[in-house]
User: Which sequence fits this backbone?
């Protein structure tokens, strides 16, 4: 059986067809070639596949296509295309918030949702918002520096002073 | 097929659809349901989405109680000023169910109906003396939450019945509540042990203690031996240790991938002990709120 849902994907109205229990993640990656959204664990533990559903971060590996009807979906591609995103992404790179990159799209999406709600979050707010996004490379320090208003300066920067 | 056909907009329509097709799988936040192998997931052709039904949404005050719609997300529960003030143990539990993304989707009714012994909110519902409003082909009925779990992942839901609302009686004045989850990390981990407590502090002793735990038996359980061990005793280290020992002695945890039976029993005892000491400290400070 196949259902057709109507959704606004990255600002564009789309009709998406597939199995009602198809994972939004697979629809994005396989049917629409939006491969920015990554699959990490596939069971709701790692946050790599985070997208925004009606502006709220959710795990696209756990969202069935059926429940996307009438919803607004934003993926990392949509966010990255926003004019405001440039400075945000540059800060992320400059602060060392990226290493292997597998978690990065999910972290960018969750962080974007946080910054929409709170322009200058503190470390605690960032840690709380990103609790569901695992990163195995950075130790989170670079990510915190990119996002938190009160994150400490880089140790190397400090040493250079 | 249009998506709307699988997403009823009223409780009556949902109940009628379930009555017409008993094989329909009711779905809500899908945070547990989607974590199955793809073949089993794609075998779920006939599903019924419960997330667009007004009767299953919202948090409202009723006579002597608060009712939470079954499709209310943990995010909404954790953010609710009413629930945070009246039922802090539930609000705290809601804030450690997964991370932000999971809290945005996972529902209280789903946690109940899915009936995992590790469900974080379930011991809280036992401690808070919750009742469930169930809706089915014969109409609605109210069931004490303590009678809902009938064995590992077995519930009292009749065929075609769904959880519509969770009703929490307003706590008596002076009730203290506590919640503690023990897992590998704060967010995103399935509990090794989860404990909830509600009690009143009266004349230096504990009254109406309700203790409950998850991940220590095939179903979430009230710790009745521990509750009895506290009856009529003064607050203090001796009582805390006595109650903790009773709690550790009355559960039947298992060894599994997340923990061992021994560790769970030990951790349960320590959490219960700490909760009782904290109540004592709050009582001594005159701050039993």
Assistant:
């Amino acid at each position: 059986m196949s259902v057709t849902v109507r959704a606004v994907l990255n600002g564009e109205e789309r009709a998406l067809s597939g199995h009602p229990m198809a994972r939004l993640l697979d629809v994005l990656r396989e049917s629409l070639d939006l491969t920015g959204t990554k699959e990490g664990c596939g069971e709701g533990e790692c946050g790599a596949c985070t997208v925004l559903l009606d502006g709220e971060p959710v795990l696209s590996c756990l969202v069935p296509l059926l429940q996307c009807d009438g919803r607004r979906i934003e993926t990392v591609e949509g966010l990255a295309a926003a004019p405001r995103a440039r400075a945000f992404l540059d800060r992320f790179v400059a602060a060392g918030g990226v290493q292997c990159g597998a978690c990065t799209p999910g972290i960018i999406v969750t962080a974007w949702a946080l910054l929409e709600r709170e322009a200058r979050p503190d470390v605690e707010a960032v840690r709380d918002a990103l609790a569901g996004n695992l990163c195995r490379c950075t130790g989170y320090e670079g990510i915190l520096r990119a996002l938190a208003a009160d994150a400490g300066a880089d140790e190397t920067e400090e040493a250079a002073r | 097929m249009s998506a709307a056909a699988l997403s009823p907009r009223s409780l009556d329509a949902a109940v009628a659809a379930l009555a017409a097709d008993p094989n329909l799988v009711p779905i809500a936040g899908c945070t547990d349901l989607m974590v199955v192998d793809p073949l089993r997931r794609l075998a779920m052709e006939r599903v019924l989405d419960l997330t667009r039904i007004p009767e299953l949404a919202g948090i409202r005050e009723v006579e002597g109680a608060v009712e939470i719609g079954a499709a209310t997300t943990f995010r909404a529960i954790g953010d609710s000023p009413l629930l945070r003030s009246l039922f802090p143990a539930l609000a705290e539990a809601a804030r450690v169910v997964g991370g932000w993304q999971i809290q945005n989707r996972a529902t209280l009714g789903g946690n109940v109906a899915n009936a995992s012994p590790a469900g974080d909110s379930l011991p809280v519902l036992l401690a808070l003396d919750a009742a469930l409003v169930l809706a089915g082909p014969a109409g609605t009925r109210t069931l004490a939450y303590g009678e809902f779990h009938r064995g590992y992942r077995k519930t009292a839901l009749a065929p075609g019945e769904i959880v519509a609302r969770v009703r929490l009686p307003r706590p008596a004045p002076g009730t203290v509540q506590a919640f503690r989850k023990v897992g590998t990390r704060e967010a995103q981990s399935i509990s090794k042990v989860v404990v909830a407590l509600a009690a009143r502090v009266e004349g230096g002793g504990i009254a109406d203690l309700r203790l409950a735990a998850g991940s220590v038996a095939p179903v979430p359980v009230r710790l009745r031996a521990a509750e009895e061990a506290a009856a009529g005793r003064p607050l203090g280290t001796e009582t805390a240790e006595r109650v903790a020992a009773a709690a550790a002695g009355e559960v039947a945890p298992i060894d599994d991938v997340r923990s061992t039976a021994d560790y769970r029993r030990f951790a349960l005892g320590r959490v219960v002990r700490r909760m009782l000491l904290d109540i004592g400290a709050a009582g001594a400070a005159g701050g039993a709120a």
